[in-house]
Amino acid sequence: MGKLCRQSLKHEKMDFWKMGLTLIGTIILMNFVMGWAIQFGPVIGSLAAVGVLGLGTAICFRFIYKYLSKFDYRLIGTELILERAFGRANHVIYSIELDQIEALTPYNEFESASRIKKLHKFVLNRDTSKWFVVSYKDEDESKTLVFEPDQTFLSGLTSSLGKAV
């Protein structure tokens, strides 16, 4: 059996008052916009209500997606798994076989080639000195992703990559 490593990245707790005031402020703003739009007639008021409902839903989704989720990195045998977790539900975003990985480099040393369409980031903070880039081949297409392993996970991954290469 190969290596078994796991790391979880959680957002720092958001201040209750900051979150509460943001949500209450959003509700007050939405109420103000609907009251203002109803002056222009029932059709405009109805359209504003639908728009405000969409905006409220987007803001709530943003809070849940950004502040209440966490990232799980797993190295199980010869597979690197990147997940986003909401409560007890884990959603596998990427599952990469170690023999598909072409390079593992620090983000600050990574030079983006023109062939890379999108760089997928699985990081929580803005400290790029802790980020690493994984370049891999998937169905004859080069893909890259950025993640933030701790020293234990990184040493397990590099030793497993040494065996795989």
Structure description:
It is a single chain. With 165 residues, the protein is of the alpha+beta class. It folds into two domains: 99 residues, Pleckstrin-homology domain (PH domain)/Phosphotyrosine-binding domain (PTB) (PH-domain like), CATH 2.30.29; 52 residues. It has three helices and eight strands; from the N terminus they run βααβββββββα. The chain has a four-stranded antiparallel β-sheet with strand order 1-2-3-4. It has a four-stranded mixed β-sheet with strand order 5-7-8-6, with no helix packed on it. A hairpin with a 2-residue loop joins strand 3 and strand 4. The longest helix has 26 residues. The two termini are 17 Å apart. The mean pLDDT is 81.
